């Protein structure tokens, strides 16, 4: 009797399978670099397609160099990005300069391509205050370490843009793990209620440090978390730069037309460790899983696609690699040349106006530093 009654109003299996259907993953380029969804193809010129590839190749080199600089003790905090290039760079590529990026700690590439000089990204990694001083006109925030906090801030920035009548969006990134935080829901809900021009990206790289996606939540998809906030949600192939670009481009159009925010889940993978602070992925991932994802590599499939169109070659790729290496060398030199950080530098860049206790500490350290 009880089970009959229950069945009448709630059938979990049907509900779950309907959700899986509704949030089916958008893909445009398959693993072989073939277009499988012509209708969803974004309008990008040959030059734009090449530029997107250049950025992905450059960023893969930046990741490799950052890892070795970290091992040499020349960088501080570093969260590897290889594997996530399509998710990170194709989403940034769909933005305009007026748009604001609110990144998480793994999202340094997007803010560099949005205008943060690379040497400043290196200084940020070292915890140097100059890394947090953003040049005028570069619409970014420094990467957030508190998981999910950037979602709430994004709702606020987006509402500010709306109130000022600026035709721009605020875009933010978190991970699969980030979707378990209260801030994640609060940000989406607030932006949804006020139709603020925000784009919420979840980069589902399958793990939150060592916690696999299946243990993170009972939800069938992460994109469906948009439903409770009353906003559209979409799941896209995060290894496919064209699918990511298309989804973000559409979300941006909707947002600047006053139709409110969108949640985009990009299905991706990080090849490296969580951060360079010492986790060992072989303790929580199998080599079979790594291999499976390497076959989906965004650079490989985009290279095939472009080569087929006569838009890419080994020479072009080598040029980008050499250019990236030179750039990185210059940037680290510039970071090394920044004056050594003093305690008073830290204190004086924390608040616009210092509270009394910090004023006292400032004086103490100033006296010590002048000795
Ligand atoms: C509020 C908060 N809780 C815990 C942590 C510690 N922490 C740092 S990264 C991380 C995992 C995040 O995983 P995910 O959101 O999937 O992002 P990913 O690192 O995979 O890009 C955790 C729990 C934190 N930084 N902030
Ligand atoms: Mg993750």
From TrEMBL:
SUPFAM superfamilies (alphabetical): Thiamin diphosphate-binding fold (THDP-binding) (SSF52518)
Cofactors, names only: thiamine diphosphate
Keywords, comma-separated and alphabetical: Oxidoreductase, Pyruvate, Thiamine pyrophosphate
Broadest EC class assigned to this enzyme: oxidoreductase
Annotated GO MF terms: pyruvate dehydrogenase (acetyl-transferring) activity
EC number: 1.2.4.1
Domain Dehydrogenase E1 component: 53-343
Family annotation (InterPro entries): Alpha-ketoacid_DH_E1_comp (IPR050771), DH_E1 (IPR001017), PdhA/BkdA (IPR017596), THDP-binding (IPR029061)
GO-annotated biological processes: branched-chain amino acid catabolic process
Record's catalysed reaction(s): N(6)-[(R)-lipoyl]-L-lysyl-[protein] + pyruvate + H(+) = N(6)-[(R)-S(8)-acetyldihydrolipoyl]-L-lysyl-[protein] + CO2
Superkingdom classification of source: Bacteria
Subunit structure: Heterodimer of an alpha and a beta chain.
Function text: The pyruvate dehydrogenase complex catalyzes the overall conversion of pyruvate to acetyl-CoA and CO(2). It contains multiple copies of three enzymatic components: pyruvate dehydrogenase (E1), dihydrolipoamide acetyltransferase (E2) and lipoamide dehydrogenase (E3).
PANTHER family in the record: 2-OXOISOVALERATE DEHYDROGENASE SUBUNIT ALPHA, MITOCHONDRIAL
Protein name: Pyruvate dehydrogenase E1 component subunit alpha
Source species of the chain: Bacillus benzoevorans
């Amino acid at each position: 009797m009880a089970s009959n009654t229950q069945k009448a109003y709630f059938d979990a299996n049907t509900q779950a399978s309907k959700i899986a259907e509704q949030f089916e993953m958008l893909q445009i380029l398959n693993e072989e670099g073939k277009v499988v969804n012509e209708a969803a193809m974004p309008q990008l010129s040959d030059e734009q397609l090449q530029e997107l590839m250049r950025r992905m190749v450059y960023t893969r080199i930046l990741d490799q160099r950052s890892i070795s600089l970290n091992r040499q003790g020349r960088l501080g905090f570093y969260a590897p990005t290889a594997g996530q290039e399509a998710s990170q760079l194709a989403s940034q590529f769909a933005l305009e300069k007026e748009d604001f990026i609110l990144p998480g700690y793994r999202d340094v590439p997007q803010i560099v391509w949005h205008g943060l000089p690379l040497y400043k990204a290196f200084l940020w990694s070292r915890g140097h205050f100059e890394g947090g001083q953003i040049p005028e006109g570069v619409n970014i925030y420094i990467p957030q370490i508190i998981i999910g906090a950037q979602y709430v801030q994004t709702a606020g920035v987006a509402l500010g843009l709306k109130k000022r009548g600026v035709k721009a969006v605020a875009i933010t990134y978190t991970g699969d793990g980030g979707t378990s935080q209260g801030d994640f829901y609060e940000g989406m809900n607030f932006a949804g209620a006020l139709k603020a021009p925000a784009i919420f990206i979840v980069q589902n790289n399958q793990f939150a440090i060592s916690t696999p996606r299946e243990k993170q939540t009972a939800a069938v998809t992460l994109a469906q978390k948009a439903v409770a906030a009353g906003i559209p949600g979409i799941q896209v192939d995060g290894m496919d730069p064209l699918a990511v670009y298309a989804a973000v481009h559409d979300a941006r159009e909707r947002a600047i037309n006053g139709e409110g925010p969108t949640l985009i889940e990009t299905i991706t993978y990080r090849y490296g460790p969580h951060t360079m602070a010492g986790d060992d992925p072989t303790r929580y991932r199998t080599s079979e899983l790594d291999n499976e994802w390497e076959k989906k590599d965004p650079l490989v499939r985009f290279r095939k696609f472009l080569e087929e169109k006569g838009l890419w070659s080994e020479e072009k790729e080598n040029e980008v690699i050499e250019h990236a290496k030179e750039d990185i060398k210059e940037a680290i030199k510039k970071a090394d040349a920044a004056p050594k950080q003093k305690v008073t530098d830290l204190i004086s860049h924390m608040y616009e106006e210092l509270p009394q206790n910090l004023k006292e500490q400032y004086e103490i350290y100033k006296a010590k530093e002048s000795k």
